[in-house]
Amino acid sequence: SIGFKDGQYQKVSIIDLIRTFLFIPISFLVGYLVDKFVLHRIYMVLLVDPGVHNAVSTISYYLVVISVITLGLCQEGFGFLVSYYILPILVGMAWAVRDVFNDFVAYFVLLVQRPVKVGDYIKMSDEVKGVVRKITPRTVVLRREQSYHLIIPNSKFMQDVIFNWDYTRSFIAFPDIHVGVRYSVDPEQVKKILAHAV
Description:
Blueprint: E1 2-5, E2 8-11, H1 14-21, H2 23-46, H3 50-75, H4 82-96, H5 98-113, E3 121-123, E4 129-135, E5 139-143, E6 149-153, H6 156-159, E7 163-164, H7 187-197
Antiparallel strand pairs: 1-2, 3-4, 3-7, 4-5, 5-6
């Protein structure tokens, strides 16, 4: 077989090919060791959130794998092959993180324009409604009744119509409170009780 090394074409033996392919399992091993003995210890010291821990570990793992394979190909004279897999990987990564990028841009729009803010009661649909509890670079966290939360991507707030009862600072609103009473009850008495409760 023919390889390209030091600017010249040269013959590549079966041993060279085997040695080159050995970089693939070695790259996975190096990625595992970096995550286990380097990143994991950093997470323990910094008390990193488990979600962030998992995301950073996954990204770092594949970056190490790609880097080791690339170095192995260049070392064995197959550096010309790097462009054949690096470009598709970069295009795939860009396509995969497009939603994350949109959410990140929407995060700054939410901070600047403030269509919603922490403490607002908002509604986007019959199912998507609640009080804004947290706004992160990726999502907005809503708390609904019965103490469960909705995690909504920031980009949704740039696309959908939002009903915000607390948009202006001078007005504070709450979701409607439905009170059921029997038909036999005096309506005036009900009004007096509700007025007294307020």
